[in-house]
Amino acid sequence: MFRHQVKLPHGYFAKSKNEYSNWRFSWWREAIQNSVDAGATKIELFIKTMDDGKLMLICRDNGSGMSKSTLQDVFLALGETDKGTDKTGGFGYAKVIILFAHDSYTIKTQDNIVTGMGGSYDIDELTEFFNGTEISVVMDVEGSFNESSFRRQLMEFVDSSSFDKNVHLYLDNKELKKPEKSYAYHVDSKIGKISFNDGEPGDSSRLMIRVNGLVMFTHSVYLNEQSSSFYGILDLDKPSVEILTSNRDGLKYEYSQTLNQIVSVLSQERSSLKCKDLIDVTFNRMYDYEYERSLSSSRQLSGGSAYAGSLSEVGIKGMPLHGQNPDFSGNPFQKFKARADALVDQVALRFGKIDQSQYPNNFKVKTHEMNAENPKKKYFEIIRLLELKRVQKLAWTWFFIIEEILKTEWAETHSIKWVKNRATRFDMPINIGFIFSDEANGLKVRDKDGYHILINVASLDDDYDFEDILDIATHEVTHLAVSNHSEGFCSEEMALRKSLRKRIKARQLERLCLEKVREIF
């Protein structure tokens, strides 16, 4: 028989608070869950600031209470638990954050009273039977975590949890209301039911993870600046010991990855149904890349007629829902699909009536990162702009400006060559067009058809002038050489501007563009 045991000083338990993302929230979680698991229908909570500035938290309930043997052999024994799989806990670890990590504690239950600090305690007999359990814990106030902060943590737990209707909670003798939250979307996943609402685009998605209706922690997933985000709850349908970490402050790796994947797929689905970037069209596509500029040749290609063929040929993206996903069933956004499909059809039909003949060949029209509250209004405004004569003239002005820039010495030194009257780089054609975006004045993009130098006509002020357009053009062409906005980009942009001035002065280029546009219109 061994005669010695490993000693666990009070400092060991105090450090365990660092294992929690928010140990103050966790204190309420563990204390209240113990009361619920004990069958309590009345849970009284108190927060008191003591004369020495320390805090006392009290959790009192009318549950089943604990016998002396249960206190010694289970509740005050690390790793021991008498909770079955139908209970919220089951790890035997909560007692550390509830009791041992703090200055001192007192437990009253049935005919027992415990007083202790860390792993050391005394058990005495109560003179009067206590119906239920009362836990009182004294703790230091650290930094800004005062009485008010503990109240906020408690309310966050209560507001996001779902209690049985027979369970009543009180804070300082005042009953806490348990608001019923409503969620727009619901999906059954392999780890539980997810209920959620839309968040702000680009934010992290935040799901409150619940077991038997009680919140354990918040799981956050960040995708990117443009992604749809959500906030809501995940009600786990598996035992805590199977799916949660030992301190119940996170999901085990396998389940965390599963949830991240679910959120990612749902985010992509939701983004597609917001109809943000439906349009990616090339007017007067010339597959042989013979870049004829005359208006007559353009008219021979399109005749100003409406598009024929599928949506994909039009360049208007459809709204497919994902098929079967191994991690969840159904699609929570089904009600939006009919609305989105109708908008796609309307935009495609209306877009097809635009007279392409007023635009250069291989002219890209694209939407990018549009955050439209009313997408139908936004897309029809784009179509209206594309039908304006001044916008059509601007398209040709943009074409002639880019053409001159791509004939500079700078362009030649950056592998830009002219093949059959068309600029290319690394054997890929360089096209021009319009970008409609809430984020950019211009954009350089690359796809299977080559490079595209695009200007956002909707971003131009009413009093814009030729030099404004020229500035955007030189900036975006520079991106052919340098993709990001580094010091190298600034040097290249200055070199390009100098090379363009050497070839043609700004006023001369403006007059040249005016003359060529007049020839067309």
Description:
By secondary structure, this protein is α+β, with helices and mostly antiparallel strands. It folds into three domains: 10-175, Heat Shock Protein 90; 185-271, no CATH class; 274-304 and 354-520, no CATH class. 35% of the residues lie in helices and 25% in strands. The protein contains 16 helices and 19 strands. The strands form three sheets. Strands 12, 14, 15, 16, 17, 18 and 19 form a seven-stranded mixed beta sheet that branches. The protein has a six-stranded mixed beta sheet with strand order 3-4-2-1-5-6, with helices on one face. A six-stranded mixed beta sheet has the order 10-9-11-8-7-13. A hairpin with a 2-residue loop joins strand 3 and strand 4. Helix 2 crosses helix 4, helix 2 crosses helix 5 and helix 12 packs across helix 14 (466-478). The radius of gyration is 34 Å and the shape is elongated. Residues 85-91 and 289-324 have low confidence and may be disordered. It holds the Pfam family HATPase_c_3. InterPro entries: HATPase_C_sf.
